[in-house]
Every structure is written in structure tokens, then in C-alpha cells.
Design a protein that fits this description.
446 residues, alpha/beta, OB fold (Dihydrolipoamide Acetyltransferase, E2P), Rossmann fold, 3 domains, 8-stranded mixed beta sheet, 6-stranded mixed beta sheet, 25% helix, flat, binds S-adenosylmethionine, binds iron/sulfur cluster, RNA binding, EC 2.1.1.190, S-adenosyl-L-methionine, iron ion binding, rRNA (uridine-C5-)-methyltransferase activity
Length: 446
């Protein structure tokens, strides 16, 4: 039987090429999502999932390549689920993310930005300073795997190198396998969480059984050899504690603001400190904080934006759902001599109301950096505030988002119900080669 050759027209959110089979009358028919295919290409494919209106497939033959196609840098790209776009030229990846953002804003929020900002760039490789690696003992092969999951699978990829981890961490992937294999609890340690600081790299070993004295010796000699700090985690993240060597401090800096941020390896921190500097600098630049301003930093984490904001504003109020993080933010503010201008509180912002906002007092400007779920309750509270206390609305909001669809939903509420206009929006290339889209939007009160 002759192969069907498909024209790929676009890329979906998971970086799969999208094409349509032709109906008998020539009109576009069933949608085919083809892994590995790019817009403008002609491909043959093998379907591995068939539904009534669509099929998921893998590219088998590339008949006509796109001019944007590049050779993936990583030898594990076909198998490892950590990256989905290494076959697409990096600037085309960003252009595609920009389109995803604009499409979402329009289709979900029914809003167009007044100005599309130039993408914000960081390093393309070696950028992932935080990672959770899975550990599996494969009894059949009597081997240990340490790595990300395979594409579409719960299996751990057999990776000996990684181009998005910092080189010194990638170099430890094979030694880590040998290390785990040498421990008595090799089959009771499901993950290793990595956090890279400016002076030290921490590795948090999740252990389900106690270590023996011999295990401890093996871990200590690995830490000495690779210059890392071990942490042990026996249950939830709050049980993570430094093990060896003690006395090392994990931190990153924001030199433009003279700020140093100590953190724990299980705390939320932005994935890369270089692009984080770009992100914080740009957000503050867009907020245009004045020395007399009172500013809110909502979903403030450990104070990543709060402390730089405090170097410019009269007062900054950081609000965050995790007590561990607000406590960290408080101690970071003290350590940076900014505690007089900052205050922090723990609050569930998914339930915030207009009354809560009235109680918090007027803010001149607001920074919002929510998790993937977005900030629906908050923007609804702002919409309600417009009706009850319009004088209390902040005149400018900068919204940092890791999900274009929830940003678009919230942008719709802010523009259609709360009296704001979407002045600017753009993408931040925070996660090159993956389909994650990080973006930033500026709303002005009209
Ligand atoms: C994308 S992070 C941003 C953190 C911080 N702005 C930064 O740059 O490091 C989102 C933050 O929202 C917090 N969070 C998640 N759900 C929350 C909720 N329901 N209420 C308040 N904060 C929440 C998380 O703990 C996390 O610190
Ligand atoms: S996550 Fe690392 S190992 Fe996996 S494909 Fe990306 S660069 Fe390669």
C-alpha cells in the first residue's frame, strides 16, 4: 500500500507537527499530530493512537525538510522527554512561542496587546539549574538509570549526557548511576533533586530507608570528588536537610539590585539565574516604580521580585501561599537590609476577595507571578474593586506567567471587567527546547 504523504501546516503546544488528511472532495479531513515533523514539511508517518477526529503519529520519512530544521544537539533527543524542540532552530522556537501567546490572548481572552515586546533571551544550553532526576533500578538488566522520563512514558531515559543541564551536572549523570548502585538502598531512592547555586550545587536524595555507615562514606567521598552538597529527604520536602558537607550556602544574586538570595534546594526558585536576572530587570523596568510608590508582589515566593522592588519603592508587600517561603523572604529581606521597606504574609491567593484587597490598602503598582493555574480569584477581586472602590485599583500591573492560557483568561477579565488595557505582552525564553511558554504582560488602568 502506498504511504500517505502529509503536508505539515503548524506546530501544536507539544511541538508536534499538525497536518490534515484530505477528504474525498479535497477539503481538509482528519487532523494528524506528527511527532518530529515541522511546519512546511512533507512527511510519512506511523500512527500510534487513533481517535474519531484525530490521530497521534510519529514521523517515519522526511520527504521535504523545513529550512528551520536543525540537527538536535543531544544524542538522547529522540527518546528523552526533557526536550521537545531541539530539531527546530532556536529563534523559530521563540517565534512559535510568541504565536502561541498571541493566539491564546486572542482566542481565550479576546484581547490583543497594544505592543508585542521583543522576546527576552537567556542561555540556550546548560540553563537548567533546577532539575528533578528520577532514579530506577532496572532489575532485569541489573543496572541503575538516573535521568528524566522517556517521551510519553513513566520509564527513565537511559541518558549519559544532557545539553540543557549545566555541564558540571551533566558530567555527573553516569557517576551518579555508579554511586546509586554502590548503596545498600539502591532500590529505595526514587529521585535526586538538583539545585545549582552560585557557589555550590546541592543534591537532595530522596531516601525511603535508612543509610548504613558504609553508604554514608560512599556519599561523602562522592561529594568531595564532585564538589557538591548532599541533602537527605526522608518524607515530604519539609524533611529535606543538609547531610554533607555542612556549612555551605546555596544562593543566587541579582547584582543590578545588590541583592543576594539564599535558598534551600527544595524551595521554588526560577529555573535559571541568568534569565531570572533578565526577567526581574525587565519586570521592574516595565512597572516604572516611583520612590513614593507602595507596591504589591503577589505570589512572591522567597522575595525574588520583592527585594529588588524594595530598592526602588517606598514600601513593598509580598504575599505568598507557602509559609516556608514567606519566612525565607523575611530572612532574605533582613539579610539584604531591606526589612524596613518590606512585609510578607502567607495567604491563599486562589481565594482572595475584593474585601481582602481593601483591607490590604491601596497599591500604586502590582506584580503578579502565579503558578500555572493563574490568578483568577485575584483578577476577579480587582474587577469587583472597580465597582466598589475604583480609587483603590493599582495604576499598572505586570503579570509574569508560565501558562499562556491562564494568562489569556486573566487578561480577558482585567481588560473587559476590571478597567485595564493590555499595553504590552511578550515571551521570555526561559525554557529553550521545551514547549513551556513563559511570558510577561503589562496592564494599565484606563
Ligand atoms: C511562579 S512561582 C513565583 C515565585 C516568585 N515570584 C519567584 O520569582 O521566585 C509561584 C508562587 O506561587 C505560590 N503559590 C502557589 N499557589 C498559591 C496560592 N494558592 N496562594 C498564594 N501563593 C501560591 C508558590 O508557592 C510559588 O512561590
Ligand atoms: S533533557 Fe537533556 S538528555 Fe533529555 S533531550 Fe534534553 S538535552 Fe537531551
Amino acid at each position: 500500500m502506498q504511504d500517505t504523504i502529509l503536508d505539515i501546516k503548524s506546530l501544536d503546544m507539544d511541538a508536534r507537527g499538525v497536518g490534515h488528511l484530505a477528504n474525498e472532495d479535497g477539503s481538509p479531513g482528519k487532523v494528524i499530530f506528527v511527532e518530529g515533523a515541522l511546519p512546511g514539511e512533507k512527511v510519512s508517518f506511523h500512527t500510534f493512537k487513533k481517535k474519531k477526529n484525530w490521530e497521534a503519529a510519529r514521523m517515519t520519512v522526511l520527504h521535504k525538510p523545513s529550512s528551520m530544521r536543525v540537527e538536535p544537539k543531544c544524542p538522547h533527543f529522540d527518546n528523552c522527554g526533557g526536550c521537545s524542540m531541539q530539531h527546530l532552530e532556536p529563534s523559530a522556537q521563540v517565534a512559535m512561542k510568541q504565536r502561541v501567546l498571541e493566539d491564546n490572548l486572542w482566542h481565550i481572552g479576546k484581547v490583543k496587546p497594544g505592543n508585542v515586546m521583543r522576546p527576552m533571551y537567556g542561555p540556550t544550553w546548560g540553563y537548567r539549574y533546577r532539575a528533578r532526576l528520577s532514579v530506577r533500578h532496572v532489575a532485569k538488566k541489573d543496572t541503575v538509570l538516573v535521568g528524566f522520563h522517556e517521551k510519553r512514558s513513566a520509564f527513565v531515559a537511559d541518558m549519559s549526557d544532557c545539553k540543557i543541564l549545566p555541564p558540571h551536572v551533566a558530567a555527573m549523570l553516569l557517576p551518579l548511576r555508579a554511586l546509586v548502585g554502590a548503596l545498600s538502598i539502591f532500590d529505595q531512592m526514587p529521585q535526586i533533586e538538583i539545585a545549582v547555586g552560585e557557589e555550590t550545587t546541592a543534591m537532595v536524595l530522596r531516601i525511603m530507608a535508612p543509610l548504613t555507615g558504609a553508604d554514608e562514606t560512599v556519599l561523602k567521598s562522592f561529594a568531595d570528588q564532585w564538589n557538591i552538597q548532599w541533602w537527605l529527604q526522608t518524607k515530604g520536602p519539609e524533611t529535606a536537610a543538609p547531610f554533607y558537607p555542612l556549612g555551605k550556602e546555596l544562593y543566587y544574586t541579582l547584582p543590578e539590585f545588590g541583592v543576594k538570595m539564599p535558598f534551600k534546594p527544595v524551595d521554588f526558585t526560577q529555573v535559571n539565574h541568568h534569565i531570572n536576572r533578565v526577567l526581574v530587570g525587565k519586570a521592574l523596568n516595565l512597572l516604572e516604580v516611583q520612590p513614593s510608590d507602595r507596591v504589591a508582589d503577589l505570589f512572591c515566593g522567597l522575595g525574588n521580585f520583592t527585594l529588588p522592588l524594595a530598592t526602588q519603592a517606598r514600601e513593598v508587600v509580598g504575599i505568598e501561599g507557602s509559609t516556608t517561603l514567606t519566612e525565607r523572604a523575611l530572612s532574605n529581606a533582613r539579610a539584604n537590609g531591606l526589612s524596613e521597606k518590606t512585609s510578607f504574609s502567607t495567604r491563599n491567593l486562589f481565594e482572595v476577595t475584593a474585601e481582602d484587597l481593601v483591607e490590604l490598602g491601596k497599591f500604586d503598582r502590582m506584580l503578579i507571578d502565579p503558578p500555572r493555574d493563574g490568578a483568577m480569584a485575584l483578577v476577579q477581586a480587582l474587577a469587583a474593586l472597580r465597582l466598589s472602590h475604583p480609587e483603590m485599583l493599582p495604576k499598572r500591573i505586570v503579570y509574569v506567567s508560565c501558562s499562556p492560557s491562564t494568562l489569556a483568561r486573566d487578561a480577558g477579565i482585567l481588560t473587559h471587567e476590571a478597567g485595564y488595557q493590555l499595553s504590552k505582552a511578550g515571551v521570555v525564553n526561559m525554557f529553550p527546547h521545551t514547549s513551556h511558554v513563559e511570558s510577561m504582560a503589562v496592564f494599565d488602568l484606563v
